């Protein structure tokens, strides 16, 4: 059966999972402040207690906690259960993975309610082990002329969920993994809030493993414009 998102009463309750610096979290914070993302961040969960993303959450007064994956070595199911319990307590409408590097095996009730962003054009350069600079290094080695970012619904398989939207950047002569990553991140800042806004507006339908972005229910209403500067 097709899965359709239903419009949320703004602001959308958003839980954010991260493992590192929290630049995507900061982008959400900035877009919300600019009125470009109709969301409220109700929880930030890190798989690493020293992640700088937690400091960003503290600075902005956001609820946050760390669930240290290192305490669950060999107990992946227990780690996932702890993540699920923490997410459940925040009662989110949507969970956004924002550089979350650990597997979360979420229960069926979260299917179609967990998004991820990947710094390449899936299905290329995705899957287990493809994260951070490893992705950009692989793109450069391949000789690909374009890369970009992909927002998709998360599933049990790394980077295999239905694609919501993509944004493209050229791969330039002389690019390093860092320069390519920075160019892609500028597009990520636009793509992820845009996908979340579609979800909030009830415009995403999963049909046959593909995402259909439906027209706005009321095109006469102004739609939030993502801040790009």
């Amino acid at each position: 059966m097709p899965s359709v998102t239903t419009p949320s009463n703004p602001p959308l309750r958003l839980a954010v999972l991260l493992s590192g610096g929290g630049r995507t979290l900061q982008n959400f914070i900035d877009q919300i402040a600019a009125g470009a993302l109709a969301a409220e961040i109700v929880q930030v969960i890190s798989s690493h207690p020293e992640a700088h993303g937690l400091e960003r959450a503290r600075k902005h007064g956001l609820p946050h906690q760390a669930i240290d994956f290192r305490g669950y070595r060999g107990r992946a199911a227990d780690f996932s259960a702890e993540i699920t319990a923490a997410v459940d307590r925040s009662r989110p409408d949507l969970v956004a993975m924002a550089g979350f590097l650990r597997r979360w095996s979420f229960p069926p009730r979260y299917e179609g309610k967990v998004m991820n962003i990947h710094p390449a054009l899936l299905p290329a350069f995705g899957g287990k082990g493809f994260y951070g600079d490893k992705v950009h290094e692989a793109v450069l080695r391949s000789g690909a002329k374009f890369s970009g970012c992909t927002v998709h619904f998360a599933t049990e398989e790394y980077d295999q969920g239905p694609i919501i939207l993509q944004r493209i950047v050229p791969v330039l002569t002389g690019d390093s993994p860092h320069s390519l990553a920075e160019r892609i991140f500028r597009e990520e800042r636009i793509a992820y809030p845009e996908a979340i806004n579609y979800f909030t507006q009830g415009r995403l339908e999963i049909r046959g493993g593909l995402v259909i972005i439906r027209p706005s229910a009321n095109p006469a209403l102004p739609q939030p414009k993502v801040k790009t500067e």
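The longest strand covers residues 39-46. Helices lie at 23-33, 52-59, 76-90, 133-142, 177-200.
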